[in-house]
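Hi there, hope your week has been kind to you so far. Do you reckon you could talk me through the fold, stretch by stretch? I've dropped the whole record in just underneath, so have a look:
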Amino acid sequence: MDPIHRGPEEFGHDSEGSAEEAGRRRPSRDPLTPDFGQQTPQQARVVRLVAGDLLLTVNPVDGSEVELCPPGEQPAAPVRRTPAERADRARAAAPPVPPGPPLLQLPLLRREDERERLSRLLARGRSVRLTGPAGSGRTALLDAVAADCAELAPDGVVRLSGYKRTVTDLLHGLFDAVHDAPLHRPDRPLLLEKLRSVGAVVVLDDLEFGGAALDELLDATPECAYLLAATPDVPAPGADSHLEEVFLTGLDRATSVDLLERVVERPLTEEEANWAGDLWFESEGLPLRFVQAGALLRQRDQLRTDPTAYDEYGYLENRPADAPPAPDDAAEAEDTGTPLPSLGEGAAPAALLASRLSGAARDTLRFAVALGGEVPHQAHLPALVGDTHADAALGELAGCGLLSPAGSRYRLAAGVLAQLVAAGYDDEAADRARAAAQHYAWWTGHPSVTPARATAEADAIIAAMTQLVPGEEAGQTSAAVLLARSAAPAFAAGLHWGAWERALRIGQEAGRLAGEVAQEAYFHHELGVLALCTGNPGRARAELETSISMRGALADKSGAVAGRRALALVEDRAGGPAGSGPPAGDETPAGPFEVPPPLAVPAVPPVPVQRAFDDTAVVPRQEAPMAGKGPERGGPLALLGGARRNLVAAGAGVLLAGVLGTVVTLGLTSSSDPQGDPGASTEQSVTEDDGIEDGDVTADEPADGATPTVRESGSASTSATPGPSGSGSAPADAVSPSATSSAVETPSSPDAPSSPSATESSGVPSGTTKPAPTKSATASSSQGPSEPESESPSPTETEGEPSTTPDTSDSASGPSGGVSGSPSVL
């Protein structure tokens, strides 16, 4: 489907049903207000690919999703390409032929010695580094040597471009050139395993790194012979790289004049030969300068033939009717005289050459300057320039020597960008960069554009984003965010992950500057997924946690869920969370242990005796805990909370709580009854003013995993164990702490805080309690968290009755038949 043509569904024609049914399904549009009608939704391009042992689903809406690759989704083993497939791929990766007249094919002059030496070293399996200045003809020499070595290696010749590429990009590019593995990006071990058996002559132009990075590239492919081309400013290889060094210098004077005559396609005059000699001395014999100088001489010849060829109306453009007529007399044209360019114009000819080109070619140069030297593909020039024939401008620029190939595209030749900037071609560069970004955002996001086409234009797209961040004018950063959001999924699906990472980082910075938090969260999520797929769990965790926090603040539930899934996979692959505390999303309070103790040594948590009683509370009726739910209700077992509890530590905590309860119980009982009279009892007075009404429920949590005892108002407990005398009271050594503490109460005071449960049920503000109407003074067992525990209960005095010892019965009655207001301990 062409992006500029509409589909049949937009006109009410579907493949299923008639037009009448389609009209009933969709509301009709008002022809006067078409923008307010229901538009056809654009389908999101979702691509599933395998990265190592992970299945990556590129989702442009909420963010990419990653999971372990199921057994049925495992890709087939990569297979080697046949020679015919390699040839087809090489033709597709070559720069496109510009439209218009065919370009002049220049021979390789006076490079026979270098060509023979390079071919001989590669035939012996040696790797060579060809170093020469920009414009010295390195690319032309590489093409000739690649043709000579086509039959040397079993995997043929592989052409790669090192322009803005890292070591990882080149390794995956070499793997893709030799193996056929669609939608499969192998992990590092599989990648190195496959590359060790690759035997090819790798011709790598525009290398941008050296040192350890270059050593890594050579060590990963021991069966390959490399022909590397770099400029002198690129770092040198390591001392142990065993690379042969070949330096490429400029041409001599005679060869330079010969090259100039081949470009002009005629012999030079004496004046032109002297000018060429001065130019050779100035440019040090660089072939690029003589190609551009030959273009200047061709333009001069055109001016001498037709002086109006390069007037204000433009070259090859229609002259308006009111324009002055062109002179017909050739002699009159000769008399006008066109001097030779000056030596400065010959050494820096970009501005003079551009001034004599068509308007579409000049606009193309302005867009190239705005994009930092990147030239858009010829298919995009009509839309950017606004001229349907603007694609022919690429042929004009290439014929003048203003462009040089870079992989499958073109960019401005060496030195041309600086010359055009000095000539003022960078005026309104920000506006042109924003226009290019908006165009690329529409183009990359269209469903008809394949990821392969988007990755082929990656350098220009990245350049458009780079020129807009940071942007001083309004709307620049927002345009960069839109382009990054549209292009990043296409780069990911096209397996150009170097461009994917650059687009995400530029988009994240643009989103931060523009204040678009939702977009910034998306880029953080994608960076985390990328780090996870490339084997960097630490960075993945940081990016995903940042994205989850941002999306949580924005109430983006679907995006937060996608981030939590990816974060869970990161923690599983890393062996659990790296930081302290429970995993993200676990609401269970963290315990005192950050790392579980070893199984051989049972650990005891450093919990004081008072803490075991403070963590308990009266549970409301609708939240009465069930058996086995103690840790979630705030009891002592909650100290070992967390998503992953250690069974040994939990058992030790339970045992400690039971021992502490027994010890406290024995101490309280022995202190209140020195003589041990089992027949004595103590009554506790509980009135309605204490806040306990009929129907209130208290729950005693068991200390050793037993079934909890639930007691209601007005009913005696049924879980009392018969004592030795056959009564319903429990023996002194089996009395629970709740039964012991419920029989003791102290006079309340404004300074002593009351029990939380009693305060809430009675409505009395915290910190104050009402005195009981009886004259008995009891000891309160509901002590606050800061009060120390009472070692022995105070004796109770009742009018007309002697002092008695506390009763060990499980039930206590008051004036209203209520139960004890003290909360259970365990």
Observations:
- The first strand starts at residue 47 and ends at 51.
